[in-house]
Specification:
Elements lengths: L7 H16 L9 E4 L6 E7 L6 E7 L6 E6 H6 L1 E2 L2 E2 L2 E2 L9 H11 L10 H4 L2
Antiparallel strand pairs: 1-2, 1-7, 2-3, 3-4, 5-6
Length: about 130
């Protein structure tokens, strides 16, 4: 049996990030989890779960066609994608966000795909 897409701690953080989003649009949390397909070009950086509909996640979605976008996805649908008996979507167990979602969005829009490593800004390089 395969590991779940979200750990308990990730699910709790995604829900915690989702609560402020119900009240404000100015919420820019760090992505909590990176999901990807080793068989296709899909990648998802998820920041939150809807507290009222906990199967719906929000984040940066990239289906590998050159147009990453912010949007929602059903976690159960991603978990249900299979190639025969093999899960088609996996959690990147080694990935850790280093910036808020907006930084990943800017980098993805510039590159045409989600990038793992954000470009270093002039301010960061001076440190």
């Amino acid at each position: 049996m395969s590991a779940p897409l979200l750990t308990k701690a990730q699910r709790e953080q995604l829900l915690a990030n989702g609560r402020p989003s119900l009240a404000t649009i100015d919420h820019d949390p760090f992505p909590v989890v990176k999901l990807f397909s080793p068989y296709m070009n899909g990648t998802w950086l998820l920041t939150e779960l809807d507290p009222e509909e906990q199967d719906i996640a929000f984040g940066l979605c990239d289906l590998g066609v050159g147009f990453p976008e912010l949007g929602c996805v059903r976690v159960s649908e991603l978990a249900g994608l299979r190639l025969g008996a093999v899960p088609a979507i996996e959690r990147d167990r080694h990935w850790q966000a280093t910036a808020p979602l907006s930084a990943y969005v800017d980098a993805a829009y510039a590159a045409g795909h989600i990038v793992d490593t954000l470009p270093v800004t002039a301010e960061e390089g001076a440190r």
